[in-house]
Amino acid sequence: MKVYKNSELNLRRAVIAIGVFDGMHRGHQALIKQAVKRAYQLGVPSVVYTFNPPPRAFFQQKRVLTAVDDKLELIKQLGIDYVIVADFNEVYAARPAAAFITELHELGAEEIFVGPNFHFGKGKTGNTGMLSRHFPVKIQPYVTCQNGEVISSTRVRELLQKEEWKQVHHLLGRHRLETLIFELI
């Protein structure tokens, strides 16, 4: 797996999974696995496009669940060929949605995988509808836990605050929590 900053990688063809992927919970894993599977079927590289820090950490000072190096290691385990880590800062946050579309064209996006409430561009002006006017878009449905609640990074944060470790393990789909826990202490 090779890691790039945004606007550094140009590909002729690719399948791209886009998301913050903070926590790398089971929902994130499902989305990335679907992108890897589809890239394999098409015989093209798989790409994850993610952000550091997560936009919520940048705008709302929310705690980061997974340090970028740990996130990259977890993504690597899912079989991705390339990762783009966009530096989410004032300049990046001010980019219009059209700039993101242009960047995806430069990546040779044949298909894009995102979550149901994906937005992009300054003021969240871009959405899955806009994205689908330019690329085939696959929207990964929410993944739920055994009691039917949606698995999300927000839910993971809430459970960590309550020290509900068993439920956190279940939502993450893995047992290695050291980096996650230390980030919150």
- CATH fold descriptor: Rossmann fold
Per CATH, the architecture is 3-Layer(aba) Sandwich
The domain tally reads 1
Write down how many β-strands occur, each being a DSSP E stretch of 2 or more residues.
8
Radius of gyration computed on alpha carbons: 16 Å
Nearest-integer average pLDDT: 90
Query: Which sequence of SSEs, written as H and E, runs from N to C?
Result: EEHEHHEHHEEEHEHHH
Strand residues, percent: 15-25%
Through-space gap between termini = 31 Å
Spatial strand arrangement across the major sheet: 1-4-3-2-5-8
- Tell me the helix content: 40-55%
* Shape call: globular
CATH class: Alpha Beta
Enumerate the spans where pLDDT stays under 50 for 5 or more consecutive residues.
181-185
For the biggest sheet, the summary is:
6 strands, parallel
Provide tags for this entry:
alpha/beta; Rossmann fold; 9 helices; two-stranded antiparallel ribbon; six-stranded parallel β-sheet; 185 residues; disordered C terminus
